[in-house]
Structure formats: C-alpha cells, structure tokens
Amino acid sequence: MQYILSFLLIPILLTIFPSAAWASTGAESHPIIHVGMHPVGIFCIGVFVLSYIAVLLEEKVHLPKSKPVMFGASIIWVAIAIIAPSYDVDHGMLRDAVFTGLEEYASLLLFLLAAMTYISVLQERLVFETLRSKLVQSGFNLQQLFWITGILSFFLSPIADNLTTALVMGAVVISVGANNPKFVAIACINVVCAANAGGAFSPFGDITTLMVWQAGHVDFFGFFALFVPSVVCFLIPTTIMSFFIPKDNPLTVKEVVSMKHGAKFIIFLGLCTIAMAVGFEQFLGLPPFVGMMAGLSLLMITAWFIRHSGVKADKDFDVIEQVARSEWDTLLFFFGVIFSVGGLSFLGYMELASSTMYDGWGASVAHISLGLISAVIDNIPVMFAVLSMEPELDRFQWLLITLTTGVGGSLLSVGSAAGVALMGTARGQYTFFSHLKWTPVIALGYVAAIGTHFLING
Asked: What's the rounded Cα separation, in Å, for the pair 72 and 277?
C-alpha cells in the first residue's frame, strides 16, 4: 500500500515542482539553462523519478538507497554536460555549478559525520542500553511507560536526532510489551510522533532543521519558537491514544546494564561539542560543522586516554572504528539527492516550481501541502526543493516549512526515518496499517500545531 501511495504521489510532486532541489545559502551562484520540454530535460526528470522509486522499493529489493540516487546523479550531470555547449555554457561554468553543490554537500557531510560518530560512540559505551535497562526495570505500568517513553522521545530527539531516539525508545517498548502486541503498536506510533515533534524545534533534531540552520534562514535560538507548536503536535495524539492503553503491569524483565568507562565524560563532551557548533556560528560567523569537527577531534583524544587507561576491556576502543560504522549509506544518499536535484535545478525547473507554488498558491498553503507530501516522500528532498527555489520568506514562513516537513512525516509510518526503522525492529507488531488507523488522530496534532504556530508566532 505504501508503495502504491508513493507512485500516485510522484506525478503530483513533479507537477508541483518538476525537480526537487539543491540547497543554496546565498544568491544564485551558477547559470541556469531553461530547457523546458527539451528531451534531455524530460530524460533527466525520468532518471530522477526512477532512482527515487528504487529508493522506495529498498525494503523489497534490498538495494541500499544510496546506489540508485548516486548513479542517477551521474547520468543527469553527464546529460547536462552534453547539451551545455548548445546553451553557451562552457566547461568552467559547468564545473562551478558542480562545485557549488559539492560545497553544500561537504558542509552537511562533515556535520553529520561528527554527530553520527558521537551517537555511535555513545552506543558502544552502552549509554542508550543503560537507559533502556533502567526503564524496563522501573516498575511502571503500561500506561505510565507509554507516557514516559513518549516524553523522553520528545526531549531526547532534539539532541540525539529522531532516528536514534526512535530506536532506543522502541527497544524499551518492545521489551516491556513482549506479551502485548497492541501496546507495542500504539506505543511505537507514540514514539515516532514524539521523536518527530521533538526534532522540529532543534537544528540537531532533524536533517531538515539542520539544512535550514546551515542555510542561514533561521538562527539557532530561533527554532525554539517552534517549541510550543511541537508540544501541541505531540500531546494531542498522545493524550487520545493513552485512553486506549491499559494500566496492566508489563512483562517482568531482569537485566542489568551499566555504562562503560568514560561514558559520562563523553556525554559531557557531546554537549560541549553542540555548544561549540552553536557558539562558532553565533559569535564567530564560522559554519557549524567547524565546531562539530573540533568536538570530534576532542572525542578522538579522549578515546586515546580511555584506551591507555589500563582498563583491559577498553584497550581496543578506537573512534576511527566508530566513524567507519556511521550510516554511510545515508550520507551517500544525501550526495545522490543533492546532485540529482541540483542538476534538475540547473536545467531551470526551479524557477517554474517557485512560480507555481509561491506565486500561485501562496507560501502558507504551499508549506502546509509540502508537509503532507513529506508523509510519503522523504522530507529531505522536499526541504531541498524549498531551499533551491530561494523564495523570499520571512522567519515565520521558514519556521512553518520547518515545522510541517518535520512533523508531517508522522502521518504515515513510511513518512520518516523513525517510522521506517521501527517497522523493522517491531516487525509484525508495528506496521503500516496499524499506524494508518491512527492517522486521523495524528492529523489533529498536525493541524493544531500549525494553528498554534500561526497564533503565537504569526
């Protein structure tokens, strides 16, 4: 069903904006060739659509999502290079356009690589396993655990990102609800909604918020204006769903997990790294990834001291190994998306998209609609589309698109990385259709969050 919905929505997406996009932080720095209905332009759109269909079919065919989009990006730029001379674009101009995309991708890559490495190290030091163990042995009933896992997901997501948060809290839900599939299904929905809502008011909570922050459209502290709308988005569906959770005691699980040596200091170092990323950007005008890479270097130095501390279990602890375990498929997927849609933007479709959406519909309607689209199509290319159009938006509208694309993915289980991940870990209990039954309730939260944003930030 989810794939049928995706196929139906792709033509709509292409009608709205014939290309997704290319993240740009400033004025137009590359030429645009307006190919219109040129066969090569249509061919490039087709390549992008086919590569994205392959991404949607990843669970069925087990082809990592990075491979088709990277290959598609190569084909698109080769096709552009072939027709570029007929549009008076020389090799130097073409290289400048490509390197503009590389600059944008490199900033995102370095930031995420540092963040993912920290998360990987915290997992290796058993920080998240310890949290899970304590919750499992807490003695709370199912309804209390439903609220606790939701609240923790909401507040952990702004720091650890929504995917990691969903996996950690999902493990708690599965452990305590091992004999209650109905509880697991509803609690997983709650975790997904809470993690996505919590990630919407922090630059670290979601890739889309990170992109808006790095593009300079909203400063770090400006995102906290979305805190109240995010709380509303979380509380409405959670409150309604909680009435369907019994107050039964969960399955008793006896397990004791303790954090490894140095874990607490690494947590502190992670917070300092976030502070450096924010401080470097706010006070020194340096890109946030500079602070993140500085923090990564400190983590590597800390790992050296831990490795030589004399603790036998830590003699092989190496941060470089954790770098290698980062989600490289995801990082390379970003490369494919940025360069694929960057090529389509170079062909002139960005201007048509901007005219259709912002001149025709108006910014608010466009952003609310894009939030609904992100429930089926990943919110990353949707946000790239908005950034590539370079619309003249005020802070309120940038926050609106950040909110809608951040929480719109909660409407369907396939709409966010958190939902897709939990479908894998809670296979057979949390499914597309178990989530779909609660979509009307989640939609109430989506609408209420938008209304709250208009009320307090408009």
From this structure: 33
How far is Cα of residue 196 from the mean position of the Cα atoms in its chain? Answer: 9
* 421-425 mean pLDDT: 77
Report how many domains make up the chain. Answer: 1
Res 307 pLDDT > 60:
yes
Residue pLDDT, tens place only, 140-163: 888 999 999 999 999 988 887 787
* Two tokens, residue 354: 């901007």
Q: What is the pLDDT of residues 219-228, one digit of tens each?
A: 888 999 999 9
**Which phi and psi (to 5°) does residue 32 adopt?**
-125, 130
Instruction: Name the phi and psi angles at 77, rounded to 5.
Output: -70, -30
d(CA 299, CA 325): 16
Q: In this structure, which amino acid lies at residue 368?
A: I
The residues, ordered by sequence, that sit 6+ positions from 23 with a Cβ below 8 Å of its Cβ are 104, 108, 211, 215, 338, 384, 387, 388
Using DSSP's 3-state secondary structure scheme, residue 426 falls into coil
- Tell if the pTM clears 0.90, that is, is over it: no
Instruction: Please name the amino acid found at residue 264.
Output: K
Of 7-16, 341-350, 406-415, least confident by mean pLDDT is 7-16
Residue 165: give the domain boundaries. 2-457
273 in Cβ contact with 295 (< 8 Å): yes
Q: How far apart are CA 277 and CA 103, in angstroms?
A: 18
